[in-house]
Automatic annotation (TrEMBL), chains A, B:
Keywords, ordered alphabetically: Aminotransferase, Antibiotic biosynthesis, Pyridoxal phosphate, Transferase
Entry's family note: Belongs to the class-III pyridoxal-phosphate-dependent aminotransferase family.
Origin superkingdom: Bacteria
Organism: Amycolatopsis acidicola
One GO-annotated biological process of the protein: antibiotic biosynthetic process
Pfam family, one: Aminotran_3
Identification of the protein by name: Aspartate aminotransferase family protein
GO molecular function: pyridoxal phosphate binding; transaminase activity
Length: 445, 445
C-alpha cells in the first residue's frame, strides 16, 4: 500500500525532469518557472504542449492528436461549433453585467431552473466552482447563523479561503477551519441502506460535535459523486438518509455538482437527482460553459431568503452576457443531441468493457462509475491501493496519446472522463488502449 | 446631511416602481424576480435594457445609444475589435487550462510582470477580483501566520466569504470578521505627508490592536484610489508612510488594483506606482480582459514563497487560453494606442471642465480624480454630503443617455469613469451634459 497522497498533486510534472524535455517545451517550462507562482503544476511526467482542440482531441505542437478522456470542462468536446458560434456572435455584439436587463440572462436562468428540482427556484451566477461553493457557504451561514461545516475525509471543494478550509484533500499545507469536521467517505460494496446509514450516522455525530463545541452545525457539503474521495457513485439512493439527518440537525445540504452536474452521470442531469434527494443549495461549475468561465448556485427560497435580503451580492463577471451565451449553447447541445442518454448508454458500455479488462489482471480491482465518469482501482499484490502503478498506467496512456488521470486519497484510482459525445467505438478505443498498456506492463516493457 | 448608505446599493432600482416601466422591461423585471436571487439589483430608477455595445456606447432595445461613462470593465470601450478578434480566433482554436504548456499564458505573464515593479515577479491567474483578493489574503496568512487584516472604513474588496469579511461597505447584513480592523479613509485637502501620517498612525494602531488581541497583524489591504470610500486620489505619495508602517509591523501590503489598475489613473499603469510604493501583493481584475473573466495577483518572491510551496492552487478557468488571449489584446491596445497618456491628458481636461462646472453651483463641492476616474462631491446648502441629490443627478443624466453612478459612504460622490479611449470632445460632451442637468435642477424642471 502506497502512502497517502493527500495534499500533493496527483500526476504532476517534476521540474527536476526538465532536462529530458525537447528544447521548446523546456524553454516554456523554464519561463513558467520564472514568472508564475511555484505553485503552478503541469500534468504528466512529460508535460504536454497543445496548440489546438477539436472534439475529443487535443492536438500538440507536432500535430499529434490526444484523446482527451480527462477533461470535464469542455465536456461537449473541444471547440464545439455551437458554443464557438454563440461566443463569437455575442462577444461582438454585447458583453455586460447583470445590473442591466437582458433576455439572455433570464432565459438561461429559467432553463437552468427547469433542469433542477422544482424547489430549487432561484439562481445566482458566479465565475468558478470555488466561488459557487464559497457563496453556498455564505448562504448557509446566513440562513442558519452557524458556521460549522461537515465534509468527507478527502473532499475537495475549491480554492477560495472558505472553500479551501473545507477541502482536506489539499493536505496539511492548507489547514482545515476550526469549524470543520470530516467524516469517512461512503463505504463500498454495501447496499444503499447500509452505506447511507453509516454515512448518516457519521454526519449526525459530526453535527452534534459542532454543536457541543458551541460552533453549531450550518451545512453538510458533498460532491454527489465523491470524486476526490476516489469515486462512490453506487448504490444510487444512499444519500437519502444523510439528507434527512442534515435536515433534522438544522443544517443546509449543499450539493457540490461541479463534477457530477450537466449530464455527466448519465442517469440524471444532476448527481443529487440520482439519489432522489433535494438539496437546499446546489453549486455548479466546470462544464457549464464548455470552457468559458461561468458557474453558479441554485437554492430554495427558504435557504436564500435571509442572504438575498441582507447581503448584497454582485459578481462583476458572474452572468456576463458572453458566458451566458456559452452556457445556453451548452444546455441546447445537451438537450438536442441527447447527451444525457448518450452518457448513460456509452458510459454503461465503457463500464462493462473496463470490467472485462480489469478481470484479466491482478493490477486492477473494483471498476465503478456513473455515466461517463468512471473510476478503476489500481491495486498491488495484496489488493491494496497502488498509487505508483496508477501513475505509471496514466503516463503510459499519455505516451499512447490517451489522456486520463488518477484520483482518491492514494492517487490509485484511474479517473476516466471522456466527453459526453463519446461514441461506442471511441469508448472501446479507450478501453483497448488501457488493455494494451496493461499487456505492456505485464510483458515487462 | 443624508444618512449613511453603507450596506445599501447605491443607485439601485426599486422593484415597487415596476409598474412604471414599459411592457417589455416590466416582463423582464418580473421574470428576474422569480428566477434570480432577491439580492440581484438593477441600476437606475428606470432600469436599462441594452442589446448592443459599441465603443463608448451601450445601445438599448429601442436603438438609443447611451454614453457609458460608468463602466470600468470594458475600459477600451464595448466590443473593442482587437479584443473581439482575439477571442473569436482563440475560442475556435483551443481553450484549455494552465496544466498544459501554452505560449499565450507565459507570454502574457511576462508582459504583465513587465508593467509592475521589478520586485513583483510572480503571477497567479484567477477569474475575478474577488478571487484575487481572497488569494492575496491566503498568501498573506500563509506568509505571516497571522490572520488579522486592516482596511479603510468604507472599503469594498469583494464577494467571497474572506473578501466580504473585510468589506465594511457591504453593511451590517455582512458581518466583518473578528480579525478585521477598520481605519478612517484618507483625509482630504491636506499635504501628502499630513494625509500619510494620519493614515499611517491609524494603521499602526490597528495593527497593534490586532497583536494585543492575540490575532496578529497579517495584512493591510487598500484600493489605491479608495473608490468606495469616496475617492482619494490626491496627493499622490501619501501611501509611502503607510507602506513603511505595514512593513515595520510585520504585515503584507496588499494593493487592491481592481479599480485603479490598467492605466485608469493616467499617471501610471498601476495605482500604487503613483504613490511610489512597492506592495507585497497586488490584486487585479475588472478591465483585465475588457469583459472576459480574467483576474489575478502578482507578488514578490518572499510573499509567495510559503504559499507556492505548501498550498496547491489550481483555478480551472484562471488563465484559460481564451481569457488570456483577451487580456493580451487589452495590454496591446493600451500600449499601441497610448491609452495611459490619453487617460492622463483627457482625464486632466475633464477634471478642469468639471471644476468649472462645479464652481457655478452650490450643489457641487470638491472635484477630484486621477486620469479617467473622477469624483464630484454633491453637497447640500450646508456643504454636507447629499446622496439624494447625487442620485437625482445620476438619474437625470441617465434620462439624457449618459451613464454614471455614485459612490462613497453617503452615495454622494458622482462616480465618473468613461473609457480610456475617450477623446477631448467626448469629455466635453459629458461635462456639458452634467452642466445641463444642473441647470435643469436649478430651473426647477
Amino acid at each position: 500500500m502506497t502512502q497517502s497522497l493527500t495534499g500533493r498533486m496527483i500526476n504532476g510534472f517534476d521540474i527536476a525532469d526538465a532536462d529530458e524535455l525537447d528544447a521548446s517545451s523546456r524553454d516554456l517550462v523554464e519561463r513558467r518557472g520564472r514568472v508564475l507562482s511555484t505553485g503552478y503544476k503541469l500534468l504528466y511526467a512529460r508535460p504536454l504542449h497543445f496548440v489546438r482542440g477539436e472534439g475529443r482531441y487535443l492536438i500538440d505542437a507536432d500535430g499529434h492528436p490526444y484523446f482527451d478522456a480527462y477533461n470535464n470542462v469542455t465536456s461537449l468536446g473541444h471547440c464545439h461549433p455551437v458554443v464557438v458560434d454563440a461566443v463569437t456572435r455575442q462577444v461582438a455584439k454585447l458583453n455586460t453585467n447583470t445590473r442591466y436587463l437582458h433576455e439572455g440572462l433570464v432565459d438561461y436562468a429559467e432553463r437552468l431552473a427547469d433542469t433542477h428540482d422544482r424547489a430549487l427556484t432561484r439562481a445566482i451566477f458566479t465565475c468558478t466552482g470555488s466561488e459557487s461553493i464559497d457563496l453556498a457557504l455564505r448562504i448557509a451561514r446566513t440562513a442558519t447563523g452557524k458556521p460549522g461545516v461537515v465534509v468527507t475525509e478527502n473532499a475537495y471543494h475549491g480554492m477560495t479561503m472558505a472553500a479551501a478550509e473545507i477541502s482536506p484533500s489539499l493536505g496539511t499545507g492548507v489547514p482545515l477551519g476550526a469549524h470543520v469536521r470530516v467524516v469517512p467517505a461512503p463505504a463500498r460494496g454495501a447496499t444503499a441502506s447500509e452505506v447511507g446509514r453509516q454515512l448518516a450516522r457519521a454526519v449526525a455525530a459530526a453535527a452534534a460535535d459542532l454543536e457541543r463545541h458551541g460552533i453549531g452545525f450550518g451545512a453538510f457539503v458533498a460532491d454527489s459523486l465523491f470524486s476526490s474521495d476516489g469515486l462512490a457513485p453506487e448504490p444510487a439512493g444512499f444519500l437519502r438518509e444523510v439528507r434527512n439527518v442534515v435536515r433534522d440537525a438544522g443544517g443546509l445540504y449543499i450539493a457540490d455538482e461541479v463534477q457530477p452536474g450537466f449530464a455527466r452521470t448519465g442517469d440524471a442531469m444532476w448527481g443529487y437527482q440520482r439519489h432522489g434527494i433535494v438539496p437546499d443549495v446546489v453549486a455548479m461549475g466546470k462544464p457549464m460553459g464548455n470552457g468559458l468561465p461561468i458557474a453558479g448556485v441554485v437554492a430554495t427560497d427558504a435557504a436564500l431568503d435571509d442572504f438575498g435580503r441582507n447581503a448584497r451580492y454582485f459578481n462583476t463577471f458572474g452572468g456576463n452576457t458572453v458566458s451566458i451565451a456559452a452556457a445556453a449553447a451548452v444546455l441546447s447541445v445537451i438537450e438536442e443531441d441527447g447527451l444525457l442518454e448518450n452518457s448513460r448508454v456509452v458510459g454503461a458500455r465503457l463500464l462493462d468493457r473496463l470490467r472485462v479488462t480489469a478481470a484479466r489482471t491482478v493490477m486492477l480491482g473494483d471498476v465503478r462509475g456513473a455515466g461517463l465518469y468512471l473510476g478503476v482501482d489500481v491495486v498491488d499484490a495484496l489488493g491494496q491501493p497502488d498509487g505508483e502503478r496508477a501513475l505509471d498506467i496514466v503516463n503510459r496512456l499519455r505516451e499512447r496519446r490517451f489522456l486520463i488521470s488518477a484520483m482518491g486519497p492514494h492517487g490509485s484510482v484511474l479517473k476516466i472522463r471522456p466527453p459526453l459525445t463519446t461514441t461506442a467505438d471511441e469508448a472501446d478505443e479507450l478501453n483497448d488502449a488501457l488493455a494494451d498498456v496493461l499487456d505492456e506492463i505485464t510483458g515487462g516493457r
